Automatic annotation (TrEMBL):
Pfam families: adh_short_C2. One of its GO terms (molecular function) is oxidoreductase activity, acting on the CH-OH group of donors, NAD or NADP as acceptor. The lineage of its organism: Bacteria, Bacillati, Bacillota, Tissierellia, Tissierellales. InterPro entries: NAD(P)-bd_dom_sf, Sc_DH/Rdtase_CS, SDR_fam. It comes from Anaerococcus porci. This is SDR family oxidoreductase. Keywords: Oxidoreductase. SUPFAM superfamilies: NAD(P)-binding Rossmann-fold domains. Belongs to the short-chain dehydrogenases/reductases (SDR) family.
Amino acid sequence: MKTYNIEDKVAVIVGASSGLGADAARCFAKEGAKLAILARRKEKLDTLKEEILNDTDVIAVSCDVTDEESVKEAIKTVIDHYGKIDILFNNAGIAVRGGVHELSLEDWNKSIETNLTGIYLVSKYVVPHMIEKNYGKIINTSSVNSVIADKLDVFIRHGYNASKAGVLGLTKGMAASYAKYNITVNAIGPGLFESEMTANTLMKSEEFLKAYNMANPTGRPGKRGELNGSILFFASDMSSYVTGQFILVDGGATIV
């Protein structure tokens, strides 16, 4: 018997085309969940679908989380195919560099719309189905940068800070409102992991990596797959009495 059993559960992974979302999809597939992988870049989703198709039933659905009609249609596609949604992993996100004195309003809005409003929109169309079934597991991706910031220029992203802190507030609000429907809502806070978002920015800055590794108790960034345990915990019934919580997966970066 699997401890974190999600076998035959229907899981929607948003932002699954690369990075942590794609890793979660691979993990969920091996654990036997039926998957709907969502992102804007359909060609990348199709590649991932082919990779994991032998492990489980999976559909790839194009979805722009900043466009309500796109979200509405994507969730309809999932419901039409599977008839339900048990697990929602809200993981779409972007990081636009810049402080408030240099960010354009367009870039500020882009951060808020993708990282925070996107979670609202997807949840808006998923939660009613979970209420109807009296069951749901929602995991929202926040960040260590919801609780800490950095003075190094390469890491100044005020729109990202604000949007990821907002995710925590939204998570708590949703958790309190939907617990009576047997729906848990929790958040994860990844530290630095190599991903498409960080590969060409933070991971290429020797100054930043040196400072990060010196400050982090583990002395290194996160490795591929090291986020999956926390996601699986929140996605499974092992966390049935855990809601409104935030797990930092950061190698201890936020404790020093």
